[in-house]
Amino acid sequence: VIWYLAARLLAAVPTLLALTLVAFVLTTAARGDPALLALQQAGDDPSPQTLAAYRQKLGLDQPLPVRYARWLAGAVRGDLGRSYLSQRPVGAIVQERIGATLILGTSALLVSSVAGVALGTVFALRHDTVIDHAGRLATLVLASVPSFWLAIGLIVLFGEKLRMLPVAGYGLDLRLVMPTAALAVGPAASLMRLTRARMLEQMAQDHVRTARAKGLGEAAVGWRHILRTAAIPIASLLGLRFGHILAGAVIVESIFAWPGMGTVVLTAISGRDLPVIGGYVLVAGLLFIGVNLLVDLSYVALDPRIRLGVRGTAR
Amino acid sequence: MVWEPLVGLDDALAPVPALAESWQFSADGTVWTFKLRPGVRFSDGTPFDADVVVTNLERYVRLSPRPAAFFTLDVSGGYGKLIEVKKVDPLTVTFHLGEPAPAMPSTMSNFFSAMFQPAGFADDGGFKGMPVATGPFKMVDWQREQYVALERNDDYRGPKPHVRRVRLRTIPDGNARVSALLAGEVDAVGELGALLPAQAQQLKNQPGITVGADPISITQYLAFNCSKPPFDDVRLRRAVALATDLNGLVRDLLFGYATPGKSLLSPFSKQWFSPKGTPSYDPAEARRLASEALGARTVAAVFPFSISAGQSRPSKAIAELLQSQLRPLGIEVTLQALENAALTDVTNRGEWNLRFQQQGWANGDPDFIFANFVASTGRDQARQRGGYRNPLVDDLISQAKSERDEKRRFALYERLQELSVQDMPTLALYHEHAPYAYRDTLTGFRQRVTYQPTLDTIKLVK
Predict the structure, then answer these.
(1) Is A33 in contact with B175 (Cβ distance < 8 A)?
(2) Residue of A33, A159, A256 with shortest CB distance to B183
(3) Cβ-defined contact of A37 to B74 (cutoff 8 Å)
């Protein structure tokens, strides 16, 4: 397993390189001068001398490949550079913010997987009933609604009208509920649909009928023979959906004033703050790869037939 | 509310004593002497004196230029050619300048002369722990981009605030701010651009919520690119000004939360504003001028504006209104909604004919506006490619800057305001009133012309 992990992490390096390179090139290609934007933050305007001095200080007078190489060299040593906008070390910014994003991301991932699988199972067991049809329609709608829209809807309903939940702020209490819900509903809905479809498929299969014929109880059949075999595609969807959760978190965090990476990254994008964007892409990439690695490892637990291969893919 | 400056500004944007009690300049205008207020103590009990001022100023010089969230800390902006700051005695400080600067008390007002307890300065230019200062509140807790917690400074020498603790929260999303207020999670929403005029209008009808608005020193301008057609022709610039119904704009799009443009200098400054700078509204004359310049031709104009600014101002609606008012003149305006960074780029490349320019007049010094906006070497005309150039105007601006007689200085600025109507390099669209809203849990919420909420006047109800 350790070899497998090492190989997978090694395989992730080119992916991360490509990710950060794309982020650098895109940000540079977008119009706007980072030094000018940094100095202009408050509507003041720097003199050409001030601007030139600041450009030099940030290393913006160097061509893109040089800047990327310098950034990369730093990143390898664990130094992510300094923000153009605030001049604070990016490492410190990430450290300060990543916790809140992780809490929100994990809570959304947990809620969506539990809710998705549970409801999907219910719908599968009650397939072609009214509950099932209504549920499928609802999940179709919910899976298509963007998280930021949902966030605003939740605020209006539970914050303004019912006054049940706090509208904004950070804390491991009721304040976590709405942002989690806004992020979890979409992935939960698509998980529900997948779980239902997979379970129905499995229920029609021979080994399930055999199991029933052996006289196993419904619960044992449902658990051992249906859900476990259906679990693998569910787990891989969950891994992929984590990317959506991370992406949605950028906007949702700023709506709920949740102090994660989201607001930082939005400011960084509009200020062309390359080091911060690079740092975020790197960390988000690592998180995504990490979660999907966990998913791959879970295959082994879920299906004993699967062995880990060192080639980078399971099976 | 936590720190205090050497020089403050009153609500007519005139410099008033704060930590400095009085000031005067030498005969040649290059040495300013500041008398400090005696008996002032920081909230930790340490005394405020000349040494403190010198250390603070040295820090500002060392940090400059440094971008900060609210203003770019560039001492050359506030202090001109500052050579040295000297302590004369414990309550007297002199500033030695490389050239006369009669407006220095204005230019160094507010955040340009904020004074902190120097023991709290960290080596990297920040603070160790909470900054300690002399104001009516002290900072007790702070989480970046989440909140600042203030507590009343019971040793404050002036009138003490009514409330003991204030928590200032950052809620970046405009709709979420309104929701937080409606949900009773916050007692008041204020600060620059915190409420859109349309949001304020909606909140007005909510029970238990009071909406107010106080004039602030921000003016929204319409800048012309005078370096290329069509607006290199002064007749067309004047025609645009004459055709723009500023009263209607303020009434319909800003719901009255502004004063229609009166001059390049905000009318909130009683000291410098002159009605001679007020453009008139005359659509018939506008059409006459336009047809004189264009005949039957139609010309195209590009108007880029920022979509992100729409969070605090109805830029798109205003741009559309202008577009419709210029069409009868034969000027076909193309609107370009751009993201902020892209807009800055387009502006600096001169790829525009019309654009918005909003400017705070945070120090109340008219040179700040004219040197930046109108002078041919200033930011707007040179770097942002406005391209307006009138040698007479340039000359008046540099004369006014070093004129030491207040009356003659006013006469020069009045003349400049008058000329700006004739030449129309930039049209003042409106002078903002920042709307704010608060719950019936408190009274006395106001906003200063320099756009801080007045935390010391707030009283809790029941």
Answers:
(1) no
(2) A159
(3) no
SS3 category, A172: coil
Q: What is the pLDDT of residue A15?
A: 83
Rounded Cα–Cα distance for residues A9 and A118 (Å): 32
Is the CB of residue B34 less than 8 Å from the CB of residue B23? Answer: yes
pLDDT band at A313 (very low <50, low <70, confident <90, very high): very low
- Do the chains contact at B68 and A48, CB–CB below 8 Å? no
B49 to chain A nearest CA, in Å? 30
User: pLDDT tens, A105-150?
Assistant: 999 999 998 998 888 888 888 888 888 888 888 888 888 888 888 8
Q: Give the long-range contacts of residues A295-302, CB within 8 A, separation 24 or more.
A: A295/A235, A295/A236, A295/A238, A295/A239, A296/A8, A297/A1, A298/A235, A299/A232, A299/A235, A302/A228, A302/A231, A302/A232, A302/A235
Both tokens assigned to A262: 């989201």
User: Rounded to whole angstroms, how far apart are CA atoms A120 and A113?
Assistant: 10
Helices assigned H by DSSP within chain A: 2-29, 34-39, 48-58, 64-76, 90-125, 130-144, 147-154, 177-203, 206-213, 218-220, 228-255, 261-270, 274-302
Q: Which helix (H) or strand (E) segment is B356 a member of? A: strand B354-360
Inter-chain CB proximity B345 and A33 less than 8 Å: yes
Distance from CA of A82 to the nearest CA of B (A): 13
What distance in Å separates the CA atoms of residue B240 and residue B427, rounded to the nearest whole number?
9
- Average pLDDT in chain B: 88
Chain A residue numbers with beta carbons less than 8 Å from the beta carbon of B77 are 44
Asked if residue B392 has pLDDT above 70, the reply is yes
Distance set, CA A72 to CA A6, A178, B417 (Å): 21, 37, 54
Does B183 sit within 8 Å of A166, measured CB to CB? Answer: yes
pLDDT digits (tens, 9 = 90+) for B233-270: 999 999 999 999 999 999 999 999 999 999 999 999 98
**Does the reported pTM lie above 0.90?**
no
* Residue in the block written with tokens 């009928």: A209
State residue B70's pLDDT score: 41
